[in-house]
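Recap from last week: sequence in, structure out.
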Amino acid sequence: MVFQVLGSRRRRYVLHYLRQQDRPVPIRELSEQLSAWELGKESDAVTPKERKRLYTALHQTHLPTMDRSDIVEYDRNRGVVSLTDYANEFDIYLDIVPHNDLPWGHFYLALGAVLTTLVAVAALGIPPFTVLDGFDYALAVAGLFTLVAAYHTLRDRRLLLGSTDVPAGALPPQSDDSDVTTTDD
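Predicted structure tokens:
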């Protein structure tokens, strides 16, 4: 079920936008913003035809699927959609990892190996690594790991779906009026 919901870029965009708004959102507003992200336009530059195409896909396919999965509440009569409390259960799956990102496990392994080697060389009394005593090395190692972990935590918070203005994978707004076509999810 999770992968059925999150397997579609449009559904991830829906979650992204609803997380930003934290209120029931009219489908018209949602379809306009998602069209803008897909087409790389500002939302006020989306044509009614472009918005309608996405509105139809949301109304007929994406929102009913998400509603059946209890991640959103889709009120067809009022034409609004909102996140449910169950949406928080999806957080573990919503962490966006860029394709060119360094795996953090590898980074920490390499950092640990370098620092262990440094401390071992100092413990063997090899100059110039004997300048600091054992406590200073321990403090430096702990401090470095704390700084790297803090950076890692802050960086990951930025990559969580719904935490930025534009979702990962959205086209940047274009400066000209060239025609961009996309395929429907």
